[in-house]
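Colleagues,

For the teaching module next term, I've prepared a clean inverse folding example: a structure given as tokens, and then the sequence designed for it. I'd like students to try predicting residues themselves before seeing the answer, so please don't circulate the second half yet.
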């Protein structure tokens, strides 16, 4: 019997395992079922293929299995190439005691291997059969809002709640990128295949990633490559001025076009499989084409032409709105902005432009309406954008699992129940499209240099779930959570699973209960976006108002009497949201201004609903803490300490939310709580 020896692949990489960092969903024990078997791997010599081999070699070495030659008689698991249309898809076959994973190339084999890890022992003992598994969309992306230099206000990772950046020390790309390699491995095992490595707010130092810092980009890309992950960079619209010394960034100026073409040549010379540029233009003070009287299509298409010869992509963000609004101006509605700026240009964006649109028309709120812009561009490649980092959802101090929220958003039927969804649009299946406009899914990462990766150890579940949902948006989010628990705590007693489900399954709904009610949005502390401040944004320039007075609250976005935002939706939603009769309770204050005594479909008044949910929200958090405290000994001590510390802060903060919001509604409405509970 011929054994696969490491000498067959002289450059077999060692797996990036740093014992001082939490292994997240890839602890060694998760590889036991695979690693205790006789495994044959037949692969080429590509970087990803070497990763497949390295995984198998490490697993069998740790768990007593064996690497055997492809074709050996007693193989229990075979990983081998086979023809298939999608290079990332794989086929799993279980027959007569042998499990085979086949794929067109090594990326599919790597995904197949991690699929086996997820299935555990079941992968080898389940019923015979054949399953072909392919990703929902080829673009499954994480954006890092990491700065190379520590920003004086935002810190190193903008909206980062897990320490510094895994890519950068203050001022430079890290010399040791082991953490990045570990991260790449975790991402590959969850399904992510693209990463943008710097903040969309691009500072002067970060602009140099296109220039003298390119060797660092190449180093990072080299770390992601073996895991099938393509590297992207966020660029500044002003780069030709900042870096190139030009006097203009006008997309119609030949010298600007030429500058970008040369920049692209440089980037792809350094990183031949580079992904492309992400850009935030004319957004919250970032420069953009508006300064030259040009449209976003003009800007995007100019960049697209520069990267097209290299097969590159432009992710052009649609987060464009007036952030210097006069709060007295009642006609301007920020919610309408993305649609107004982008929908008229549908069909005019180049083939390699992807318009990246936040899932909500405001900004990653705990509950807001769906962005109508996502449904308005059948002739454009669209990537809806999400946030894994919890800017408005508790800063990874609160235990909030986002899988259920994302699942609801991904499955939102823009054209009515049973029809095409947000996830369909992302995959190029807009009902009025020709099927070729494949966009993707993007989200802001929640990872930092924290020993648990995500500050709150339970926030790892969000990173895992994001990857899994980009691969399969129809997957059950609680089943994904269950999968994460099983991988992360492989030998744990049943009570660990029960506790984590009790704490996390409905934690998004709990968070909604104790924060901004009924889709009203933005009752947060300005700037940090942590903790309650009901009027914090009310007289600000940011366009995020709720118009509470003594009689009522909410934003009238109807066509009949309000801003007309409801008219941006296709049927049936344009009418469902327009009418008080049919508008869902949870979005009532997003679409309508109503008296505090307005009766919801639930039968309660608005104000009583606010009181009840806020009291109940804290009760639910306290119940989670009770469950946690009862069972914390079943968890690893360092992790238990961290979670316990976070829970203490969550209880403090939730109490604050409950009392501030309830008091605000009591003082404005003058309506007492029907149950006479304490409100201040
Ligand atoms: C939010 C967030 C900013 C971020 C911006 C964006 O406004 O608070 O930190 O830069 O979104 O998405 O560009």
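(Answer key — instructors only)
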């Amino acid at each position: 019997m011929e054994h696969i020896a490491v000498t067959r692949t002289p450059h077999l990489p060692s797996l990036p395992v740093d014992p001082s960092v939490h292994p997240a969903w890839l602890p060694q024990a998760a590889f036991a079922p695979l690693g205790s078997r006789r495994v044959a791997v037949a692969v080429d010599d590509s970087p990803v293929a070497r990763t497949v081999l390295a995984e198998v070699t490490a697993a069998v070495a740790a768990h007593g299995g064996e690497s055997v030659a492809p074709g050996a008689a007693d193989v229990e698991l075979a990983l081998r190439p086979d023809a298939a249309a999608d290079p990332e898809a794989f086929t799993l076959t279980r027959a007569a005691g042998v499990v085979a994973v086949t794929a067109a190339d090594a990326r599919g084999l790597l995904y197949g291997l991690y699929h086996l890890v997820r299935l555990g022992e079941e992968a080898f003992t389940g019923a015979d059969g054949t399953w072909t598994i392919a990703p929902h969309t080829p673009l499954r992306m994480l954006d890092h809002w990491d700065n190379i230099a520590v920003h004086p206000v935002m810190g190193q990772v903008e909206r980062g709640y897990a320490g510094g950046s895994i890519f950068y020390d203050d001022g430079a790309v890290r010399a040791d990128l082991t953490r990045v390699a570990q991260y790449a491995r975790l991402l590959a095992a969850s399904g992510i295949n693209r990463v943008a490595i710097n903040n969309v707010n691009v500072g002067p130092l970060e602009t140099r990633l296109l220039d003298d810092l390119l060797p660092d980009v190449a180093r990072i890309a080299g770390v992601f490559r073996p895991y099938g992950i393509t590297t992207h960079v966020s660029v500044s619209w002003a780069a030709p001025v900042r870096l190139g010394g030009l006097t203009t960034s006008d997309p119609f100026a030949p010298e600007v076009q030429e500058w970008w073409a040369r920049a692209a040549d440089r980037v792809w010379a350094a990183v031949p499989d580079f992904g492309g540029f992400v850009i935030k233009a004319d957004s919250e003070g970032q420069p953009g084409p508006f300064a030259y009287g040009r449209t976003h299509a003009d800007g995007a298409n100019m960049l697209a032409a520069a990267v097209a010869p290299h097969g590159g992509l432009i992710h052009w963000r649609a987060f464009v709105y007036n952030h210097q609004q006069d709060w007295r101006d009642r006609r301007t509605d920020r919610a309408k902005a993305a649609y107004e700026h982008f929908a008229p240009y549908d069909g005019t964006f180049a083939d390699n432009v992807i318009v990246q649109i936040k899932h909500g028309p405001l900004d990653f709120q705990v509950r807001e309406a769906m962005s109508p812009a996502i449904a308005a561009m059948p002739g454009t490649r669209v990537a809806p954008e999400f946030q894994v980092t919890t800017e408005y959802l508790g800063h990874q101090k609160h235990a909030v699992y986002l899988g259920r929220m994302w699942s609801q958003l991904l499955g939102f039927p823009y054209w009515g129940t049973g029809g095409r969804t947000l996830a369909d649009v992302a995959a190029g299946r807009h009902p009025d499209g020709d099927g070729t406009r494949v966009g993707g899914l993007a989200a802001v990462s929640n990872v930092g240099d924290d020993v648990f990766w995500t500050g709150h150890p339970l926030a790892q579940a969000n990173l895992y779930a994001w990857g899994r949902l980009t691969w399969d948006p129809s997957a059950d989010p609680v089943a994904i959570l269950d999968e994460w628990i099983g991988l992360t705590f492989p030998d744990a007693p049943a009570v660990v699973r029960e506790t984590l489900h009790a704490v996390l399954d409905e934690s998004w709904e709990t968070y909604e209960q104790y924060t901004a009610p009924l889709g009203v949005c933005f009752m947060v502390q300005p700037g940090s976006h942590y903790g309650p401040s009901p009027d914090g944004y009310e007289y600000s320039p940011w366009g995020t108002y709720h118009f509470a007075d003594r009689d009522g609250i909410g934003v009238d976005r109807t066509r009949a009497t309000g801003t007309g935002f409801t008219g941006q939706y296709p049927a049936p939603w344009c009418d469902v949201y327009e009418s008080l009769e049919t508008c869902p309770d949870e979005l009532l204050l997003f679409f309508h201004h109503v008296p505090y005594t307005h009766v919801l479909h639930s039968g309660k008044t608005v104000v009583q609903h606010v009181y009840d949910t806020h009291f109940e929200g804290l009760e639910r958090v306290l119940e989670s803490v009770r469950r946690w405290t009862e069972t914390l000994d079943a968890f690893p001590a360092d992790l238990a300490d961290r979670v316990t510390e976070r829970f203490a802060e969550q209880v403090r903060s939730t109490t604050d939310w409950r009392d501030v919001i309830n008091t605000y509604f009591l003082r404005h409405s003058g309506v007492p709580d029907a149950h006479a509970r304490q409100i201040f």
